[in-house]
Amino acid sequence: MTEHTGQAGTSSAHSATQDAVALRAVGKSFSAHTVLRDVTLQIPARRIVAIIGASGSGKSTLLRLIGGLDTPTDGAVNIDGRAVAQYDPRCAFAFQEARLLPWRTVADNVALGLPRDEDRARGRTRIGELLELVGLTEFAGHKPKEISGGMAQRTSLARALARTPSVLLLDEPFGALDALTRLRMHDLLLDVHAAEPTTVIFVTHDVDEALVLADTIVVLGKEEGRPGATVLQTVSPSQQRPRSHSDPEFTRLRQQLLAALGVQLRSEA
Amino acid sequence: MSQHHSAAGAPEGAPDDVTHAGSGAAPGTAAHGHATVASGAPGAAGPGSGTGPGSGRARRSGRRRGPVVLLGLLVPAALVAAWFWSTAAGVFTPVQLPPPQDVFTAAIDLIERGQFFQHIGISTQRVLLGYAIGAILGLAVGALVGLSRLSDVLFAPTIGAFRAVTGLAWVPLLALWIGIGEDSKVTLVAIGAFFPVYTTVAAALRHVDAQLVEAGRAFGLGGVKLLLTVQLPAAMPSVVAGLRLALAQSWLFLVAAELLASSMGLGFLLIDSQNNGRTDRMILAIVLLAVLGKLCDSVFALVQKRVLDRWT
Ligand SMILES: Nc1ncnc2c1ncn2[C@@H]1O[C@H](COP(=O)(O)OP(=O)(O)OP(=O)(O)O)[C@@H](O)[C@H]1O
Ligand SMILES: [Mg+2]
């Protein structure tokens, strides 16, 4: 299990393959408040990317820009070579909050995620499968107020998956889950990713989670004396998944990432 | 553990070909170094705080209505008893306050004359008709103002100003313009019903949880679909509350209309009895208004409960 290729990737090796998501010098300000500055990222298709960073460093903001929920102040965001549209239909979003429609059952909330042109019968089958995947079959008929926060989060995840998007954007999708459910959801995400040609970008506070799941980890943070957060470093573990926590590389990267976040925290204070 | 190897390496290209170029930022670090640190460090970095939806999971335990209703009748019963006692003891003259049995007799008398149900019928008809018109207009205008910034800016101040005019103030003008027939009364009731509906609908639609609306849009909803899927259902509880308020207000406006210009109805019964010195009938009219208004409201409360169950 701890086998790894040995040749850790050399940094900044531009691939010839089409980048699924490309951010070019993206900046975002809210009135005078600069949140993101000069973010440039190229994410090849089918990659799993984790975004980590201190609270308030603009992770959600960055994800929203990629999904077309907000427009950048500077720069450009492209998906498959085309500019991101408002509420881009190529993306599916799982918000940091579950954001379920309170009057709809769990199943009907997941159904909201189905592509608009989905055939009814096929859609119902798909919802059944997704509920099974996130372990909520029993709760299909429950209203959001009747389920726990973690269940709501899984419903929100299933809703995003229902869209079979080419870019899946997940904002702290496993935040409210217990350790065991969290591991199950990690497996689920990897299974879904293996089964469908999806580029996954997710936000997490958990360095270990990032290291277990992601092909590449993007650290967002402030640079001394400059406004707004930008990409401080990107890290790409060479280990194959499933990754062992005891692998030397895992331990090293973990320390490196924690240091990056820690430094950030200290400089903020 | 399930097999994830297939997913790990993604298609072609080195696994780290996600690249970035922040100006002057630290370069991507992915070099494979010599790790000497002991393995198996415990997991750090606590989980983020995912906030679930509104908590309140508990369901009100229903099916205890009977005793509650009986309890609610306690005070009216006590009032009637006090009324009975005070009139029997001669605290009030019959002209000031006739005893309950006189009021009852007055009701029987009116029933025999065929006027009792005529008064009730015409008043109820005016309320229902006016309420329907006012509520429909309130829904339409409220939706317009609540959903469109432009209409909000254009119309809201004017409507707000008209709302400040009390119902009674309209009576003379309506009598002048529409005459003293049915139309003017129904119109006044409609005015009374319009404002509560308009106000609540506009406010509810304007304040639909922006996060839910955004979620709807993110999943491809827009326009009418968004309205039907997210905005209207979200506003539903407030809309129904507004409709209920409007029904109560319809009865208030009805009396105003009938007091000043009418030849039938409970308001007319009230003013006519005053002119004839029939306190018993005045009290009867008031009791009937109270009972009818409360009855309407109770029926609506049942509807409201169902709506709340369904839409929250
Ligand atoms: N709509 C907005 N208007 C003004 N400021 C905003 C808006 N959205 C985000 N911000 C600001 O942008 C900054 C980054 O917010 P963001 O939600 O992206 O942080 P985050 O990294 O996701 O934090 P967390 O880990 O706590 O979720 C914050 O300072 C926030 O106040
Ligand atoms: Mg966030």
Polypeptide structure, described:
Chain B: Keywords: Cell membrane, Membrane, Transmembrane, Transmembrane helix, Transport. Chain B: Residues 120-301 form the ABC transmembrane type-1 domain. The complex is a heterodimer of chains A (269) and B (312). In chain A, the strands form two sheets. Chain A has a six-stranded mixed sheet, with helices on both faces. In chain A, strands 2-1-4-5 form a four-stranded antiparallel sheet, with helices on one face. Chain A is built from seven helices and ten strands. The longest helix of chain A has 21 residues, at 248-268. In chain A, strand 4 (74-79) and strand 5 (82-83) form a beta hairpin. With 269 residues, chain A is an alpha/beta fold. Chain B has a domain at 113-311: MetI-like (MetI-like fold, Orthogonal Bundle). The model of chain B is unreliable at 1-16 and 22-61 (pLDDT under 50). Chains A and B meet through strand 2, strand 6, helix 4, helix 5 and strand 10 of A and helix 1, strand 1, helix 9 and helix 10 of B. Magnesium ion (MG) is lined by residues 59-60, 96, 171 of chain A.
Summarize this, please?
By secondary structure, chain A is of the alpha/beta class.
Layout of helices and strands:
The complex is a heterodimer of chains A (269) and B (312).
Chain A: E1 19-30, E2 33-44, E3 48-53, H1 59-67, E4 74-79, E5 82-83, E6 91-94, H2 106-111, H3 120-133, H4 149-161, E7 167-171, H5 179-195, E8 199-203, H6 207-213, E9 216-222, E10 229-235, H7 248-268
Parallel strand pairs in A: 3-8, 3-9, 6-7, 7-8
Antiparallel strand pairs in A: 1-2, 1-4, 4-5, 9-10
Helix pairs in contact in A: 3-4
Chain B: H1 5-8, E1 19-20, H2 65-72, H3 74-88, H4 100-113, H5 116-147, H6 149-163, H7 167-178, H8 182-206, H9 210-218, H10 223-260, H11 266-276, H12 279-311
Adenosine-5'-triphosphate is lined by residues 30, 33, 35, 53, 55-61, 96 of chain A.
